[in-house]
Every structure is written in structure tokens, then in C-alpha cells.
Amino acid sequence: MLNQNKFFVTGIGTDVGKTIISAILVEALQADYWKPIQAGDLHYSDTDKVKELVSNTKSVFHKNSYALNSPESPHSSAKKDGINIELDSIIEPNISNSLIVEGAGGLLVPLNNKETILDFIKADYNVILVSRHYLGSINHTLLSIEVLKSKGINVFGIIFNGDEHVSTESIITEMTGVPVIGRVSHHETFSKELIKEYAVKFRKALHQ
Question: Domains plus CATH for the chain?
């Protein structure tokens, strides 16, 4: 049985907006936040960014299992740090609150020589896929959903990041049957107030 309170946020690639989306989801559910693997930007990590954008006082921000120095694929960054990422060392926080888990890059980003982000996704996670519009994004979105479904992983919904692109969004939803949770329009900056506005819009869809 799926745990409706555990969501894994992944993207169709890197820099598609997973961290902003995670902040919105954390605020919408007053959930805890956990990024198991942080590669680079340790002085201002994704955890720091989400914490800065969340207004509620219930959410707890959990420590990375791996905090790697280089902003590149986890397997490469870990190698530079002289370590090897082991899935058994990535231990989910033991909490009673809802949990938002943010992945690193896309689904097939290597963690080590054998395993990828996909191998980390647990059976009771509801996956939310972040899709951003660019030439090739339809293919990347369909591929991501196909690989999740092939592994029997629940694809809870898609969030589109960027201004509306009707033909792109309609063909993705028609071909996959995956529900759309919502869309985050392009903004130059995100404030706590803006995150709260989106949180209100998404809250109902997250309780489906």
C-alpha cells in the first residue's frame, strides 16, 4: 500500500526546478524535507534554499546522507571526495510527518558504478515528475515516465515548470495518462509569499 504522505521529487533532467517545486510541496503539506544527496553548493545547499522559502514552522529539514563537494554527477563527485555512495548508507528519517524527498538530477543519474537515482526510489514513494518546456522535453518526459512505470513505481503526477505550452502539455498527458498537479509559471525570483500562493493551488491535488 502506498504511503500518501511520502513524495519523491524528480525531474526530466537537471536544472528543471525540482528545488522550487519541493519548497512548494513542503509548504503545501507542512511536510519535512530531505535531500539525500547534495552535490556541490554546500555553502548554500538545496536544503538551505527550501528552508529559506518555507513559511510554516512545522517542517523539519533533515541532513543530507551525502554532502559532496563538486557540482556534478554524484558518482563523479563522490569519487573526487574519495568515497563511494552506498544505498544502504542512505537512511530515510524516522518521522511521523509527511516527507518530501528531492532527488539529484534525473532518474538515471549514476550514484556509483552500478546504481542510479532510480534504484533509490522506494516502493512506498509517490513520484512527482517535474517537467520543464524546451526542445526535446516531450521525449525526456515520456522516457522518464516510461522507465518509472516499467519498474512498477507509482507516478503520482506531473508538475510543469515554466509558462504554459498547450500542445506539449496535452500530448504528454494524453500519451501517459498521468495527472497534472499544476504548473509553476516563470518568475525571476521566488519569495515566501509566492511559494505560499502556489502551495494553496497545489494542496488539493496532493490529497487526491
Answer: 6-206 (3.40.50.300)
